[in-house]
Structures are given as structure tokens and as C-alpha cells.
Amino acid sequence: MAVGPVGAGGEDGRQYGGRITMFVALSCVTAAMGGAIFGYDLGTSGGVSSMGSFLKEFFPDVYRRMEGDVRVSNYCKFDSQLLTLFTSSLYIAGLLTAMLLSSWFTARRGRRPSMIIGGAAFLAGAAVSGGAVNVYMAILGRALLGVGLGFANQAVLLYLSEMAPARFRGAFSNGFQLSLCLGSLAANIINYGAEKITGGWGWRLSLGLAGVPAALFTLGAVFLPETPNSLVQQGEDRGKVRALLQRIRGTDAVDDELDDIVAANDAAQGGENGLRLLLSQPRYRPQLAVAVLMPAFTQLNGINAIGFYAPVLLRTVGMGESLALLSTVITVVIYTASTVVFVFVIDRFGRRTLLIAGSLQMLASEVMIGAILEAELGDEGGMGRGYAAALFVLIGVYVAGYSWSWGPMTWLVPTEVFPLEVRAAGQSVTVASGFVFTIFIAQGFLAMLCRMRAWLFFFFAGWIVVMTGFVYWFLPETKGMPIEQVGKVWKEHWFWGRVVGLHDLQATEKL
């Protein structure tokens, strides 16, 4: 059953045939559910951390500060390394999983088995978190969630980029970001309702319900087909791969695409470990830079500080617990709506244009947030309602700019730029870089807020300037380029072309 036509030009001018079939659409929707488990966690992290009942049970010192210890600055009431460890333990476990296991497993066993393992680990983490009886059990639950994300983030993004038609790869890959938004929205709505439950056990509901998206994702992954790229990488019979590709594309004319996949795999058969190859060969320097820097910039611009700690930040400026949670629900609605807009513009305007425009919107918002906090919020007392409302609006503008640019693009662009022989390893580096800088922000934000106060937001604004410059000068456009032929953009780039060209020249001289 076909939904619409699609074609993409290769490096040699030939066209890939096919249409967007219902088969590939349903497969990608199911795989994209992996974003929902990530989004749900982002939503619960900050929401639960600001609930009085949760703080009273596991972090009593923080709870006492929030209840009116006037000796502590507004900016320092939530400053607790144990509280931030609760948030960042998930990403520490995810980092170790991505570095030590998930890349190898995804390359050797395929994308689908990795998604099943990731979903199962997330289910276990949700059960332990919801049933925690002490802070260490709560942190263990978060660590199990991290193992799940280490596998899921590695496999889902590769799956979407390899299954999607080249012309609409941006829209398809955005399914991960969209489901992330929906998961975060669900979590914030649940947080708002759970906070009102009498008896102080609402936080258990918030944490335990993470098992719902995890169960849907795991069950769906059991029935997914493997990607043609992964089957070729595993040595599957060409006829079987061709039949699957015909079903995915809705046409018999798949030989050109299959030839490119096979050629990319043949080029990879040098017996070297993909990660070692990626780190040692100069020809992969451009892709490695993208894999490391894009996730790093995404964290250093401050979005996860907002994502994790928006309720905490809003309570810091004087909002009540319930109102702070309700405000984050509205913010996530803005996040989701902007991500939907991204689906319709990504494959029309391209990657670079949206990244630069989104950066400028985020920069203006970040500077104004810092200015309001510096001018209006001291160590004691609250903030006027008008200024608090302005702060909330600016957070919404900032989140909107992020969600139609860097949010989905951070996941999309790295999956587009790696050749098959190092694709799983490259995705592992992308995931690992994201986890490293997420840990830095999650573990350090509350301490930085306490010490830097409003200037923390000027710190984030400075990084937005840096990442805008990186896109302008060093990131080529990959819109519409078939994934197995995207190497052409590096050879034609003003800077990376020299790096790749120098490697080619050295290889020729050795021959």
C-alpha cells in the first residue's frame, strides 16, 4: 500500500525509485516510540525532583530549604550533589552502555535486537524506580533506565535513517524527536496530577508509569523487520535483502539502492573494528567532528538544564509547586507543536538554515532570561508576577527555537553523515558524547546556578554563539542526499575537502 512518491538523486546522477509505503511508515512509527521513553524520562526528572513529597522522603535537606530556610540563597535551595546524582545516574549508565556494548551489539546483531534489549532494560528500571524504598534504590532504577537508553538511542536513530527514503529522511527521523516530545508531555501532565495525590506517593506513579511507553516500544520492536543495510552488514542473502527492500520502497526497481548498500558494506570488509577505524583514519575526521560536537552543543546551549530543572527554576523565582508543574506542561505543549512544524520544513529548507535560525531565536531568549534574573531576583524574596510571567514566556520562546532546529537535528544529522563501515560506531560516539555532556549539565546545573546565579544563562548564550559559527563554517548541507552517497558533501566542502583530499592523496602515494 503506497502513500506517496519519492525519488532521490545519487552521486552519479541516478535516481532511487520507490514510494513511501505503509509498511515503512508503520515500521518507523513503531521504532520512533524509542523517543517516547527518553522524553518521558526528561519529563519526570525535573518534575519529581521538585515534588515536596519526593524531596521529603529522599532529600530532606533540600526539602527544609524549600520550606523557608531564609539563610540559603534563592539560587542555592536545590543545590545537592545527591539530588543531581539521581538525575545524572541514568546518563552515566547510558554512557557506559554506549561505549562498551551497544555499538558492537547493534553492528553485529542488528538494530531490532538492540531495541528489544533497550526496551526490556527500561521496563526493569521503571519498576525499580517506582518501588524505591531509599535513595540508592531510586538511583539504581535510574541506572537501569540508562542502560535501556544506551541501547535504544543507539539503534532507533540508525533504524530510522536507514529505513527512510532519502528525500524524506529528515521528516522520518524527526519521528524520534516528535515521540520524545509526546513522552515528555505525558510525563509533565502526569507529574501535575500526581503532585495533587494525598498520601505523598504521587511520585511513585510518575516514575512507575515509565513502563507504559517502554512496554509499547519493546512489544513493537519484536515485530519490526531488520533494515536492509543491517542485513547486508550481517551477510544475509542478497535475494532476501532485495525482497525486503522492494517491500519497503513499494517498487521492484531497487537495484541501484541495493548496489550502493552492498558496495558500502564491501568497502567495510577490512577486518578492522568500526570504532578503531573511525578514530584512527583521517578520512572520517569530518563525521567524527559532527558526532562529537553536535550533541555537545545541544547540551551546552542549556536545553537540558531547562528540561530537567524547569520546575525547580520556576520555584526558585517564587512560583508554587503546582503552578510550576502546570507551567512546564504548557512549555512542553509549545515544544511539541514546534516539533510538528519541523516535520513540514526540514526537507524543504535544509539543515543549515534551520540550525542557524533556531540558534538566533535561542540566543535572544537566553540573554533576556539572564537579564531578567540579574535585575529582578536576589538572594532573598521572590520576583514580581510580571517578570515571572515574562520569564515563563521567554522559556517558551527558547524551547520553540530549539525544538524546530537543534532538537531533532542533533539526532538526524549524525545519522546521515557516516558511511556504513563506521555507522554503528559513529552513532555510538554520538550517543556517548550526548551522555557525557548531559551528565555534565545534569550534575553541575544546580551547583552552577548557586554560584553563577543569573550569569549561568549568559554562559549558555556564549555557547550558542559558538555552535552557530560551527554550523555556518563547518557543517555542509545533507538534505536529500542518499545516505550511502553522502560522502560527496565532504569532498566539496571548503575546509573538510582539504582533510579528505589529503587522505586520498596519501593513500594514492602509498599505492
UniProtKB/TrEMBL annotation:
Membrane topology: Multi-pass membrane protein
CDD domains in the cross-refs: MFS_STP
Superkingdom: Eukaryota
Cellular compartment(s): Membrane
Major facilitator superfamily (MFS) profile domain sequence ranges: 27-479
The keyword Transmembrane helix is assigned to this record: yes
Keywords: Membrane, Sugar transport, Symport, Transmembrane, Transmembrane helix, Transport
Parts of the chain that traverse the membrane: 20-40, 82-102, 114-133, 139-160, 172-193, 205-224, 288-310, 322-346, 386-404, 424-442, 454-475
GO MF annotations, alphabetized: monosaccharide transmembrane transporter activity; symporter activity
Cellular-component GO terms for this entry: membrane
Pfam family for this entry, one: Sugar_tr
Homology family: Belongs to the major facilitator superfamily. Sugar transporter (TC 2.A.1.1) family.
Name listed for the protein in its UniProt record: Major facilitator superfamily (MFS) profile domain-containing protein
Organism: Paspalum notatum var. saurae
